[in-house]
Amino acid sequence: MAEPITLFTLLATFPNTKALKTGAVSSPLVNFNFADVKVSNTQFKPLVREQKYDLGELAIVTYLQAKQYETPYMLLPLVVVGRNQHHTIFHNVEKKPLKPSELTGKRVGVRAYTQTTGCWVRGFLADDYGVEIDKVRWVTFEDAHVAQYHDPDIVERAPEGKVIKQMLIDGELDAAILGDVKEEGPIRHLIPDHESAGRAWALKHGGVPVNHFMVVKGEIAKSRPDVVREVFRLLKESRAAAEPAIESGTFNPLRIGIEANRKSLETIVDYAQRQKLITRRFSVDDLFADATRILGAAAN
């Protein structure tokens, strides 16, 4: 028997991760010391800057930037968070009427310019609504998770103490990427038919946009490929145990395997490069070279 290992792990509790986090899915080879964190994105910065975690969920744009600067983590072909993104951008209906196609020249708030949700939204605004994203003023509230990255000139930092939603209410922003929030007061979805728009986008682009994948520290991948294989197996079993059942096919937000995620990854790499988030255009096979070597046919 190989020596058991305990992995310091960053992973939020979702239906697809619950079985693993509760121990309903377990292994004699791998134990997990889960960080006491409710929202994982608060720990993406120490993950990529300090290599704090042995195993963790990580937003794909943060991973692409970290890989460009040779941060030593290996990407697993398994999505732990994915969703349509058309519902995440909002405007204030009490101000001047606004359509998605009218954002060129406007001020749009986003938590960070490097946020994966923001990258997806800017991508479809440019491609599907004709927005010139380089002529939008992007107002941010946080810096990048990856220390080496610096925002482009089209980005400005909101004044200290400002809150993105209140700035939208006060008319200091024309629109804002707020994520999974409900319409409230004058704050309404910028894309009224966002559900049908999101499903149409997924059909055209090969699936629901991917967001968080799992990464494992490179030194563990090199020294313990058996642990990588076991972690991948456990994550797949945990997803299979999810309740309610996860939608399958094109609209499955939690796809497993390289081929199932290839088109989405090609799209986000393209968006990230066009938006000056990365300078190197990674191929999907580049991203999963180590995973393919360790997981073999299971990676596909």
Structure description:
The structure is a single chain. The chain has helices at 18-22, 44-50, 60-68, 116-129, 164-169, 194-205, 218-223, 225-240, 258-274, 284-287, 289-295, and strands at residues 5-10, 30-34, 55-59, 73-82, 89-92, 107-110, 137-140, 155-157, 175-177, 187-189, 210-217. By secondary structure, the chain is of the alpha/beta class. The protein has 2 domains: 5-82 and 209-299, D-Maltodextrin-Binding Protein, domain 2, CATH 3.40.190; 89-204, D-Maltodextrin-Binding Protein, domain 2 (3-Layer(aba) Sandwich). Strands 8-7-6-9-5-10 form a 6-stranded mixed β-sheet. The model has no long low-confidence stretch (mean pLDDT 96).
CATH topology of the largest domain: D-Maltodextrin-Binding Protein, domain 2
Largest sheet: 6 strands, mixed
CATH class of the largest domain: Alpha Beta
Q: Output the structural class.
A: alpha/beta
Overall number of domains: 2
Poorly predicted ranges? none
- Looking at the overall shape, the CATH architecture of the largest domain is 3-Layer(aba) Sandwich
Percentage beta strand: 15-25%
Number of strands: 11
SSE ordering? EHEHEHEEEHEEHEEHEHHHHH
Give the CATH superfamily of the largest domain.
Periplasmic binding protein-like II
Main sheet strand line-up: 8-7-6-9-5-10
C-alpha geometry: globular
| End-to-end Cα distance | 27 Å
| Average pLDDT, all residues | 96
Share of helical residues: 25-40%
H/I helix tally: 11
Indicate the radius of gyration in whole angstroms: 19 Å
